[in-house]
Amino acid sequence: MTGHSALIRLLAERSAKQGQFTLASGKQSTFYIDARLTTMSPEGLSIIGPLGVATIRKTGWDVDAIGGLTLGADPISYAISYASAASDHPFRAFTVRKEVKSHGTGKLIEGPLRAGDRVVVIEDVITTGDSALRAIEAVRNAKASVSGLVALVDREEGGRQAIEKAGIAVVSLVTASEIIAALTS
């Protein structure tokens, strides 16, 4: 089983739920993906890390660091960073807070992101694209450039297009339709 098909299977078994749900975007849906049930598991981390590195390398993007909006992007970023450690060009991971820290240094971004870095923004589940766009804005405000975005799951509800409209290339590891197909097979 390839990393891609193993990830689909794991997301279908652990993260996908059917019923009536209100998503973070406020949209109503009969399908919910709690990606953290996969991304925070040893099996999920061991699949996501190498698959994420391979996906980023395949794009040809020149990357120094990866990260996105906490909490969804964190385990994905860390798994990919860890999996890249043995390579000639490992990726540093960072986290974008939802709000500026009110104490200490008052940071919005935690971790080793540097001005001038070339960044891939990470997203767990794209629905409207709003979370990803917030992370992109924070990275740009930190004087780093965004090479592209890697999403664990694209819900295929217009978020990808919203991000691409903002000039950012998007690659997803899995789509919602692939997970739904795995649920019904």
Kindly summarize this structure in a few lines.
The protein is an alpha/beta fold and 185 residues long. It has helices at residues 3-15, 36-39, 42-59, 73-84, 130-141, 159-165, 176-184, and strands spanning 16-22, 28-33, 65-69, 92-96, 109-110, 118-126, 145-154, 170-175.
Largest sheet: 6 strands, mixed
**What is the molecular shape?**
globular
CATH topology: Rossmann fold
- Which consecutive residue ranges, at least 5 long each, have pLDDT under 50? none
Q: Distance between the terminal alpha carbons, to the nearest Å?
A: 16 Å
H/E series = HEEHHEHEEEHEHEH
SSE class: alpha/beta
CATH class value? Alpha Beta
Contiguous helical run count? 7
Strand content: 25-35%
Record field, number of beta strands: 8
CATH architecture: 3-Layer(aba) Sandwich
Characterization of the model:
Helix 1 packs across helix 3 and helix 3 (42-59) packs across helix 4. The chain is α/β, with parallel strands linked by helices and 185 residues long. Helix 5 links the parallel strand 6 and strand 7 (145-154). It is built from 7 helices and 8 strands, in the order H-E-E-H-H-E-H-E-E-E-H-E-H-E-H. A 6-stranded mixed β-sheet has the order 5-4-3-6-7-8, with helices on both faces. Strands 1-2 form a two-stranded antiparallel ribbon. The chain has one domain (45-175): Rossmann fold. It is 41% helix and 27% strand. The protein has helices at residues 3-15, 36-39, 42-59, 73-84, 130-141, 159-165, 176-184; strands at 16-22, 28-33, 65-69, 92-96, 109-110, 118-126, 145-154, 170-175.
